[in-house]
Amino acid sequence: MTRWTGFVVLVLFLALRVIDPPLMQTIRLRGLDIFQQMWPRDYSKKPIVIIDIDEASLEAEGQWPWSRAKIARLIDAVRMRGGIAIGFDILFAEEDRLSPKLVASDNDNLPDEVKKVLKDLPDNEAIMANAMRQFRVVLARSGLRTGEGGLESLDGKRQTPNVTLGDDPRPWIQQFGGLVANLDVLEEAAAGFGLISLRGDVDGVIRRAPVVMGALGALHPAFAVELLRVATGKDAYAIKTNEAGVTSLVVAGVEVPTDQNGQIWPYFTKSEPTRFVSAGALLKGEVPPQAIAGRLVLVGTSAVGLQDLRATPLDARMPGVEVHAQIMESILGKHYLVRPNYAIGAELVATLVISIIMIVLVPIAGALRALSVGALIAAAVAGTAVYMFLAHGFLFDAVFPLIVSLSLFLILVSFSYLNEERERRRIRGAFSQYLAPPLVAQLAKDPSRLVLGGETREISVLFTDVRGFTSISEAMKDDPQGLTTLINRLLTPLSNAIVERQGTIDKYMGDAIMAFWNAPLDDEDNAANACAAALKMIAEVEELNAAFQAEAEAAGRDPREISIGIGINTGISVVGNMGTHMRFDYTALGDTVNLAARLEGQSKTYGVPIIVGETTATAAADTIAAIEIDLIQVKGKQEPERIFAVLGDATLDRDENFKALKALNRSMIASYRTQDWASAQDAVAMCSELAEKAGQDLEDYLFLYETRIAEFKANPPGADWSGVYEATMK
Predict the structure, then answer these.
(1) Does residue 267 register a pLDDT over 70?
(2) CA pair distance 6, 390, nearest whole angstrom
(3) Contacts of 476 (CB under 8 A, 6+ apart)
(4) Going along 524-581, which residue ranges are E strands?
(5) Which of 254, 302, 308 lies closest to 280 in space, CA to CA?
């Protein structure tokens, strides 16, 4: 009877947790806050500074709102002191009441000549817009729960381009029924727009921050995300999803992991005065250049009367602009707290396991022993939660399991006393029955990689491009939307192939992609992973072409076929944030990168989809099936490079027909370089037969050699010929 009562109480608690009423949410969230309150993130200076419209600024410059002309002076002051970009945590949705024309029209007592002078002066908005055009300025937009009072549509409004890698994220992310934007003249001059809408939890405390949101049918980056994008000069941001929701957002060369709703849990510090520079002091010229130079600048207010104070786990009244600054610090420094989608399940399992232990133990062990065991269990749960937080930033709710286990203990002990205690047995292996799930730990923890500068390391660089894209674009010139859809359908699986194999997508260049491995995350198998990604990309294109074929047959039109070329090279490069203090971009530079781009261009010449350099082929030899195709001196390089065609994976490399083809190709290349044209010509013919048996299309490659051999046979290159082919085309 005692145990059955315990099981009934446990089921009621688990049902309560699944329903999750506001009181339960508040208790749990306050429990999670304890971790940050006991071990807040240490503040370390990042390239971020806040221009604060504080009480002193209002006293010196006058009440808010300030004129847009004064805001223009603020922008100019930041620009002249070497700031990278500036973002306003302020909406400019209404006309400036201090603009000369409005002053003239609103004051009937002014002499006509004064009114005329005022009306001839430029509007304050025009002054501010002119200052914005000379700098990278991000303006805020704000979401509305309903469409009342905001924009009815986004027609004519600029939006930040984005790429979705996976399913449509809109069913998962926070949605707004309406949107408040800025005056058109200001939005036209802005470099970007980000949503400043931060929704607190049930108790009003901001613990989570969305990095992407939806409004009026479109996707909108968060304010912090957009400022990072603009500051690093990126054209777009990418959203990665799967069937469970959003998984991450890629901005400024950094992949930001999120929960299924596109949110991150920033690891907060307490409000830090050194983050702030007084706007009034800046306008007076009292702020030294070094306080602004090389920084991302946010403009907001800490003045109590302007009511932009938010509650966080560490501060009951933190300026909203500082919350955005901390979100940026979390992204730049990768200081995330992690509460993945499976956390609730893990906590319920932990609660279930602990509770079952209590239900089984109390009736047989006695109150004192059960209390001792319960105390050990509680200590283990709390200790595990603390360890997971300190070691991995994992937010594990220990409060609910402890409340349930304590409640069960009291109930079971009461029933045991009512039903007379029984003799107890010792607990065996309690601690081994409730291990929290392992935390996914794939993020680089070195924030120094995100400041201006680079590091020298070996990377594998991949370039891919669509062959004949100009012709495709010309054929679809009357259907630009269809062309956009086509490119998105292509780039999505190709990007997934890269990211799934630990690659970093550097940039999209229209129909082309540049990616690299072993930066910023270490990857000892970078060459093999790059080749695996390339083979997967070829397979994805084949699947896409099959889909195009089916769609064309259904529509009764000619099918569209896409082919891509891929070049991969491995070597030493400089990787990091490149540029100036005004603008920088996370990328890779060096001869390794240049050669990879040239190899991609040669894939069409040799008629093979994937060409790699010798270092790549050697490093990935155990995982690929490759043949040497030439010793080539690409345009712009003095040293020749031995290049290889990757035709498949290790399974193909073990195929007997492929082994024979590989050996015969090696013999053909050797004969060609020693000017034994007859043997080389015979080997070409035999390679054609073996290629067909091995399931490989090498027709263009072998025809190239057949043509060369015929030309050299007629016009020998001379005794001093080294066998190097000089490519004249990129």
Answers:
(1) yes
(2) 34
(3) 482, 483, 486
(4) 564-579
(5) 302
